[in-house]
Amino acid sequence: MKFLLLLAVGLDLAWAQQDQSQVPVQQGFSPDQVTGPWKTLSLASTNRSVIEEGGAYRCFMTGIVHLDNGNLNVTYFHRKDGKCVKEFFVAEKTDIPGRYTFEYQGQNYLTFVAVTKDYVIMDFENQWEGNTLIVVELHGRTLFSGKLGLPAYLKHTARRGIGAGNIEDVSLNSCNSS
Ligand SMILES: *[C@@H]1O[C@H](CO)[C@@H](O)[C@H](O)[C@H]1NC(C)=O
Ligand SMILES: *[C@@H]1O[C@H](CO)[C@@H](O)[C@H](O)[C@H]1NC(C)=O
What we know:
It contains three helices and ten strands. The chain is α+β, with helices and mostly antiparallel strands. Strands 1-3-4-5-6-7-8-9-2-10 form a ten-stranded antiparallel beta sheet. The N and C termini lie far apart (53 Å). The protein is globular and about 35 Å long. Helix content is 16%, strand content 42%. The chain has helices spanning 2-16, 143-146, 150-159; strands at residues 36-37, 39-45, 59-66, 72-80, 83-93, 99-103, 107-115, 119-128, 131-140, 167-169. The longest helix is centred in the first third of the chain and has 15 residues, at 2-16. InterPro entries: Calycin, Lipocalin, Lipocln_cytosolic_FA-bd_dom.
């Protein structure tokens, strides 16, 4: 009992670094709602260079698999040395459904802000060497269905202090051939 309590406190501390009022999680989140293929429509960040060509977060998510241990295997295409390569990261579940953590150029906190059958809005908060970087992404089951998420996406980017100049429509771009 004491151990469980301590474990819960530890996870809460990790999340305490993030202002959760700014990062609502989809109520009633279930991992099976986000599994399957996705198409990336838009990327936004507090630092524009990370979502521009060659940036660490210029990633085109192609699918999510729900692993047996409850974690998520997220696959995406990303340009590396001029070539498009397929990569993946494993998002580790926390005690809050819809919130995950993983290592990628520092510690990342991933929140599924909105999940519908048509689109997902994913919020990444990266902490590295004392700096905080925020990346918000809009993905659709198809290009068309993803557009239904635009109003909610723009509301969330505004809430995160990301202006229109730091939001890039990548729906016509892709990175899946070399
Ligand atoms: C933005 O990101 C680039 C690339 O990672 C980095 O060199 C630069 O220092 C960052 N700018 C700010 C203001 O953090
Ligand atoms: C995640 O998916 C990728 C590609 O689909 C695969 O190569 C990799 O082994 C998977 N990793 C885990 C931990 O399941």
